[in-house]
Automatic annotation (TrEMBL):
A GO molecular-function annotation: oxidoreductase activity
Location of the NmrA-like domain: 5-223
SUPFAM superfamilies registered for this protein in UniProt: NAD(P)-binding Rossmann-fold domains
The protein's name: NmrA-like domain-containing protein
Keyword match Oxidoreductase: yes
Keyword Oxidoreductase: yes
Length: 313
């Protein structure tokens, strides 16, 4: 049976990369964790001596091949803006011959969904996955897995993106009762560990994860109840609530994108269509939680995250 002992991680200092490396270390399942970085002098938030640091040039195939040689797996956690930088990273992983599994930075919604696949912001992710598919055919020892976690969930901007509970603002989309999946950073990291421990079952396919299934209206309700507990104020008091349709947001975003607008506002419109638009891939009826060792957080865990964002925990 093939086992993974030496793992390389790109983007380890980022929001997703940090918990991934932390979980890889905490699992005690891997012999060596190598962090790829552009700047080897940059401090990293991991215990001294726990990782190997290799400086790389993402524009140099030979540099990446040298860094990955001897690694059994490579995990990318490069940021949204750096997705295209994975092209040479994937090629290097396939070329060295030792990397048995590559996990690209495709965290998020279901890019296999034909509706979502038409949205321009997802094209770089789809291109990288297509490259992985091609290389898995031409390099039999190489394989890939993508992790689809729908919406991210944490007591930070990711929760604010869904409902801004801290400032008591909510833009309710498509009525607010559309069910979607959301996954914590920790469970995304656990998914990485789960993939590397279940190579055969996860080979050359996406795995789908979810810490909780919820709706915008559910989160608003939890936040209002929490504020009653915190402040004793009346339910619904001092909230600013607006309403929109993701179909209209998508249309606006496509028009502005065609005109050259690449602003965060346009990107947000596309993302809202992707995870809240019914049928667009933001809800996974079948998930790989059990295989990957993800227990989920349930409604109580969602309440804890809302409370943390409101400063109660």
């Amino acid at each position: 049976m093939t086992t993974i002992k030496n793992v390389a991680v790109a983007g380890a200092a980022g929001t997703i990369g940090r918990p991934i490396v932390t979980h890889l270390l905490a699992s005690n399942l891997f012999t060596k964790i190598t962090v790829l970085t552009r700047d080897a002098s940059r401090p990293l938030p991991f215990p001294p001596g726990s990782i190997i640091i290799k400086q790389v040039d993402y524009s140099s195939l030979s540099s990446l091949e040298s860094a990955l040689r001897g690694c059994d797996a490579a995990v990318s956690a490069l940021s949204f803006d750096a997705i295209s930088n994975q092209t040479l990273l994937v090629k290097a992983a396939a070329n060295v011959g030792t990397v048995k599994r590559f996990i690209p930075s495709e965290y998020g919604n279901d890019t296999l969904n034909p509706l979502l696949a038409t949205i321009p912001i997802y094209q770089p992710k789809i291109a990288i996955r297509s490259l992985c598919e091609q290389l898995a055919v031409s390099h039999p020892s190489f394989s890939w897995t993508t992790i689809q976690n729908a919406s991210f969930l944490a007591a930070d901007w990711t929760l604010d993106f869904i409902v801004d509970v801290k400032n008591r603002r909510a833009d309710i989309k498509d009525g607010g009762d559309v069910l979607f999946c959301a996954t914590t950073y920790e469970d995304v990291a656990q998914a990485v560990v789960g993939v590397l421990m279940n190579l055969e079952e996860t080979a050359n396919r996406p795995v789908r994860t979810s810490s909780v299934e919820t709706t915008q209206n559910d989160i608003v309700s939890i936040a209002k109840d929490t504020l009653v507990e915190l402040e004793g104020v009346g339910k619904g008091k001092d909230w600013t609530v607006t309403y929109s349709r993701t179909e209209e947001l998508e249309a606006q975003a496509r028009k502005r994108w065609a005109e050259g607008d690449r602003s965060e506002e346009v990107v947000a419109m596309f993302i809202n269509r992707a995870f809240i638009g019914e049928g667009w891939g933001g809800y996974f009826p079948v998930r790989d939680n059990g295989l990957l060792g993800i227990k989920g957080i349930g409604r109580e865990g969602l309440k804890r995250i809302v409370k943390e964002r409101l400063g109660m925990e």
